[in-house]
């Protein structure tokens, strides 16, 4: 079979293949054409190295190490120490309240029992939160800490409700006797025990952090903002409980002094139980509010929707943003996701890298998930692309 004229010229065949490649690949084909005609003495353009490409990668932080973080290790040590102190003095209050026939002392012992249970639950949730993420639990077990705090608050409210009922019964019938000396001694020991536990569980407010693992963060544009909450949710809940118990112990001590010197005023025992149990319930309200906010996927209290939105819109190339969601797994583990509508001339990788960097550095998010898409004019009328209304 005779070769055709086009086949007899190797150069024509090569040129035809190059032109086809250029037509199919556009600019990329042009780059291939240039590289094929480069002289051997000239070095070919180097491919981007992995270290250079990492700048555009969204996973800036190293993989978390297994086990508890230093903050959680400190929380576990605090809970162990407070749990031991609480158990010892709870047993002493049970004995002292029984000998003194004091409902107020038994109320304080019951609150200490609730604290022991809540702290043991918190220790369990701290251990559970170290388990790695799975295909079923893709976020891991961080929220077990929040559930432990909720169980602690609910248990305290239940025990307090029972004791309030018993206090009302005593006020109505007045059929009881109080040993003033035993009550006074037990109440004094209870105050010392609660002071010791409060010292063990006290956490200083964490400093402003500009990293993705900051404990709490107030955006730079908003200034210091509200006082920063205590660091670990479980320790914070236990600390609030101890403060409520300390307040009640002081009330019981005042009532025991009155009953010791004026036995005819034994009604001070159920009255102190009634009043200071209400104070203990009120002291847990902030913790309950924060826990419910987390469980309802609410925006973290330390940041606002508008500052995060404005930060994303300030990224060069971003025309609009929608589907912006802010939530938290714990008080210190904040998460954000959003869609970024960019100009057709913008580099998606550069926009993604810059937007992620600003969110990490300005707000301390633990996880950022951003979707980049080309801006379309109809987005302005799309109901799903509109911002959510004010609460």
From TrEMBL:
<dbReference type="GO" id="GO:0098978">
    <property type="term" value="C:glutamatergic synapse"/>
</dbReference>
<dbReference type="InterPro" id="IPR050681">
    <property type="entry name" value="CDF/SLC30A"/>
</dbReference>
<dbReference type="InterPro" id="IPR027470">
    <property type="entry name" value="Cation_efflux_CTD"/>
</dbReference>
<dbReference type="InterPro" id="IPR036837">
    <property type="entry name" value="Cation_efflux_CTD_sf"/>
</dbReference>
<feature type="transmembrane region" description="Helical">
    <location>
        <begin position="79"/>
        <end position="100"/>
    </location>
</feature>
<dbReference type="GO" id="GO:0097457">
    <property type="term" value="C:hippocampal mossy fiber"/>
</dbReference>
<keyword id="KW-0967">Endosome</keyword>
<keyword id="KW-0472">Membrane</keyword>
<dbReference type="GO" id="GO:0010043">
    <property type="term" value="P:response to zinc ion"/>
</dbReference>
<keyword id="KW-0771">Synaptosome</keyword>
<dbReference type="InterPro" id="IPR058533">
    <property type="entry name" value="Cation_efflux_TM"/>
</dbReference>
<dbReference type="GO" id="GO:0005385">
    <property type="term" value="F:zinc ion transmembrane transporter activity"/>
</dbReference>
<feature type="transmembrane region" description="Helical">
    <location>
        <begin position="238"/>
        <end position="261"/>
    </location>
</feature>
<comment type="similarity">
    <text>Belongs to the cation diffusion facilitator (CDF) transporter (TC 2.A.4) family. SLC30A subfamily.</text>
</comment>
<feature type="transmembrane region" description="Helical">
    <location>
        <begin position="181"/>
        <end position="201"/>
    </location>
</feature>
<dbReference type="InterPro" id="IPR002524">
    <property type="entry name" value="Cation_efflux"/>
</dbReference>
<feature type="domain" description="Cation efflux protein cytoplasmic">
    <location>
        <begin position="305"/>
        <end position="375"/>
    </location>
</feature>
<keyword id="KW-0813">Transport</keyword>
<dbReference type="Pfam" id="PF01545">
    <property type="entry name" value="Cation_efflux"/>
</dbReference>
<dbReference type="GO" id="GO:0030672">
    <property type="term" value="C:synaptic vesicle membrane"/>
</dbReference>
<dbReference type="InterPro" id="IPR027469">
    <property type="entry name" value="Cation_efflux_TMD_sf"/>
</dbReference>
<keyword id="KW-0812">Transmembrane</keyword>
<dbReference type="Pfam" id="PF16916">
    <property type="entry name" value="ZT_dimer"/>
</dbReference>
<dbReference type="GO" id="GO:1990742">
    <property type="term" value="C:microvesicle"/>
</dbReference>
<comment type="function">
    <text>Probable proton-coupled zinc ion antiporter mediating the import of zinc from cytoplasm into synaptic vesicles and participating to cellular zinc ion homeostasis in the brain.</text>
</comment>
<dbReference type="GO" id="GO:0140916">
    <property type="term" value="P:zinc ion import into lysosome"/>
</dbReference>
<keyword id="KW-0968">Cytoplasmic vesicle</keyword>
<keyword id="KW-0862">Zinc</keyword>
<dbReference type="GO" id="GO:0098686">
    <property type="term" value="C:hippocampal mossy fiber to CA3 synapse"/>
</dbReference>
<dbReference type="GO" id="GO:0005765">
    <property type="term" value="C:lysosomal membrane"/>
</dbReference>
<keyword id="KW-0864">Zinc transport</keyword>
<keyword id="KW-0458">Lysosome</keyword>
<feature type="domain" description="Cation efflux protein transmembrane">
    <location>
        <begin position="80"/>
        <end position="296"/>
    </location>
</feature>
<feature type="transmembrane region" description="Helical">
    <location>
        <begin position="149"/>
        <end position="169"/>
    </location>
</feature>
<dbReference type="GO" id="GO:0046872">
    <property type="term" value="F:metal ion binding"/>
</dbReference>
<dbReference type="GO" id="GO:0099180">
    <property type="term" value="P:zinc ion import into synaptic vesicle"/>
</dbReference>
<dbReference type="GO" id="GO:0015297">
    <property type="term" value="F:antiporter activity"/>
</dbReference>
<dbReference type="GO" id="GO:0005886">
    <property type="term" value="C:plasma membrane"/>
</dbReference>
<keyword id="KW-0479">Metal-binding</keyword>
<keyword id="KW-0770">Synapse</keyword>
<dbReference type="GO" id="GO:0051050">
    <property type="term" value="P:positive regulation of transport"/>
</dbReference>
<keyword id="KW-0406">Ion transport</keyword>
């Amino acid at each position: 079979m005779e070769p055709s004229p086009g086949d007899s010229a190797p150069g024509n065949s090569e040129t035809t293949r190059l032109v086809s490649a250029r037509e199919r690949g556009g600019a990329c084909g042009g780059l291939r054409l240039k590289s094929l005609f480069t002289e051997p003495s000239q070095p070919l353009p180097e491919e981007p190295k992995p270290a250079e490409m990492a700048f555009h990668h969204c996973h800036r932080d190293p993989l978390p190490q297994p086990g508890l973080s230093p903050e959680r290790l400190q929380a576990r040590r605090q809970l162990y120490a407070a749990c031991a102190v609480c158990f010892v003095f709870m047993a002493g209050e049970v004995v002292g309240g029984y000998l003194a026939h004091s409902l107020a002392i038994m109320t304080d012992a019951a609150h200490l029992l609730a604290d022991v249970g809540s702290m043991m639950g918190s220790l369990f949730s701290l251990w559970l939160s170290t388990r790695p993420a799975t295909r079923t639990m893709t976020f891991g077990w961080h929220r077990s800490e929040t559930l432990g705090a909720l169980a602690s608050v609910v248990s305290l409210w239940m025990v307090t409700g029972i004791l309030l009922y018993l206090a009302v019964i005593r006020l109505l019938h007045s059929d009881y006797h109080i040993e003033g000396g035993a009550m006074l001694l037990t109440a004094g020991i209870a105050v010392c025990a609660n002071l010791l536990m409060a010292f063990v569980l006290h956490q200083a407010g964490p400093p402003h952090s500009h990293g993705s693992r900051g404990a709490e963060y107030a955006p730079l544009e908003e200034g210091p903002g509200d006082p920063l909450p205590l660091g670990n949710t479980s320790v914070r809940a236990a600390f609030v409980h101890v403060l409520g118990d300390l307040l009640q112990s002081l009330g019981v001590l005042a009532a025991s002094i009155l009953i010791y010197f004026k036995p005819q005023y034994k009604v001070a025992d159920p009255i102190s139980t009634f009043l200071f149990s209400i104070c203990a319930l009120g002291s847990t309200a902030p913790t309950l509010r924060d826990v419910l906010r987390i469980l309802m996927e609410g925006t973290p209290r330390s940041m606002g929707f508008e500052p995060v939105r404005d930060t994303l819109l300030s990224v060069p190339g971003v025309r609009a943003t929608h589907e912006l969601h802010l939530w938290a797994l714990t008080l210190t583990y904040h998460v954000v996701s959003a869609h970024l509508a960019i100009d057709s001339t913008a580099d998606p990788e550069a926009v993604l890298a810059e937007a992620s960097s600003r969110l990490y550095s300005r707000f301390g998010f633990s996880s950022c998930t951003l979707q980049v898409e080309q801006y379309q004019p109809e987005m302005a009328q799309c109901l799903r692309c509109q911002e959510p209304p004010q609460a």
